[in-house]
From TrEMBL:
Topology with respect to the bilayer: Peripheral membrane protein
Organism ancestry: Eukaryota, Metazoa, Chordata, Craniata, Vertebrata
Pfam families for this protein: GDI (PF00996)
Keywords, in A-Z order: Acetylation, Cytoplasm, Golgi apparatus, GTPase activation, Membrane, Phosphoprotein
Protein name, UniProt field: Rab GDP dissociation inhibitor
Keyword Cytoplasm: yes
Self-association state and partner proteins as the record states: Interacts with RHOH. Interacts with the GDP-bound inactive forms of RAB3A, RAB3B, RAB3C, RAB5A, RAB5B, RAB5C, RAB8A, RAB8B, RAB10, RAB12, RAB35, and RAB43; binds RAB3D to a lesser extent. Interacts with DZIP1; this interaction negatively regulates the interaction of GDI2 with GDP-bound RAB8A.
PANTHER family: RAB GDP DISSOCIATION INHIBITOR BETA, RAB GDP-DISSOCIATION INHIBITOR
Record organism: Xyrichtys novacula (Pearly razorfish)
Family to which the UniProt record says this protein belongs: Belongs to the Rab GDI family.
Main subcellular location: cytoplasm
Cellular component aspect of the GO annotation: Golgi apparatus; membrane
Function: GDP-dissociation inhibitor preventing the GDP to GTP exchange of most Rab proteins. By keeping these small GTPases in their inactive GDP-bound form regulates intracellular membrane trafficking. Negatively regulates protein transport to the cilium and ciliogenesis through the inhibition of RAB8A.
Any Gene Ontology biological process: small GTPase-mediated signal transduction
Amino acid sequence: MNEDYDVIVLGTGLTECILSGIMSVKGKKVLHMDRNSYYGGESASITPLEDLYKRFGIPGTPPESMGKGRDWNVDLVPKFLMANGQLVSMLLITQVTRYLDFKVVEGSYVYKAGKIHKVPSTETEALSSSLMGIFEKRRFKNLLVWAANYDVNNPKTWDGMDPKSPMSDVYKKFSLQQDVIDFTGHSLALYRTDDYLSKPCIETINRIKLYSESLARYGKSPYLYPLYGLGELPQGFARLSAIYGGTYMLNKPIEEIVMENGKVVGVKSEGEIARCKQLICDPSYALGSTSKVGQVIRAICILSHPINGTSNVNSCQIIFPQNQVNRKHDIYVCMISFAHNVAAQGKYIAIASTTVETGDPEKELKPALDMLAPIDQKFVSISDIYEPTDMGTESQIFISRSYDATTHFETTCDDIKDIYKRMTGLDFDFSEMERNKNDIFGDAAE
């Protein structure tokens, strides 16, 4: 291990594995280490089911009704991929898609007044949605048409709303009521809070376009999910790194990040030092250079039934907008099942998550857990969210952010692009990504 590297990466979370792959492809000499014996870090998929019981301290073994333990791959951090989103673009440019198979998530739903409704995201769906009255439907349809045609370079398409106008003014312009504002902002634009209302409307317009374009790709929902669980994603990027000469070491205790004159020069493990010019790591390896900014509660629920009100789909997302549940943050539910090779036949995994606001976090998930009942087995975790306080300019240590409560990877990709820019001084370039965009997923739509 006593070698010199351009980049050392600590931790095998998705963020770290993607950056490791990208740096290897760019010709950097990369060493990637993790104290764990498995890939994925905080975002691992746990198999067999017995390991999940042990991890959460649940006594005994899973009942026979759960099937074989090896049939299970349970994500610790539930997320879907937007079909037209940034992570899919990263998978395409690096061709990691050759190691993965995807399925389209079958539905996207929103909670309103005690019930869940399918999220309308096309003009046709808007006109038939049970979420709105007839006049609201027309106004919402007008908003969707306006957003789809909005061109930042063509003021004629703005209809009086320049890109810097606050989004709250756009809602006023279309005379939308609070319920419609809730599902537009939280289920289409996928904001976690209402802070976006005072920000430039172009940000929300772009998010609505991303949702609509992702939906148009396959039709059932804008989301994709990999067969065998999210743990396949970091392993795919690890393979990519290895192909380009990256070295991987699991089960490696990290004793010290070695510094000289305030700058990283290497990593000490088992008495040996590997030297490097730059270091990437998850927050757990550099807690002294991070600040805790909140907590996320997640409840992994094993079910023997699909979720009520979803037309018995095998996978879906449900968003509980903050105003509908008297909170400051949304509640999310991701549901996948045996159809994705992550559960035994006839079983479903629904994971509820939200940002913690009180001293009784599990109670905060009650609206979601009530909807999932009856629950065969529940695994509850509370995770601290860390952000780096050191941007790496001097130290050349680049720390990722913890995974938030959202059910998609867009915020994770923003973090990857941010770290890449701080490391290289260059913007992450998506220009090559158009190569195989239309045929890369093959039968994902099946």
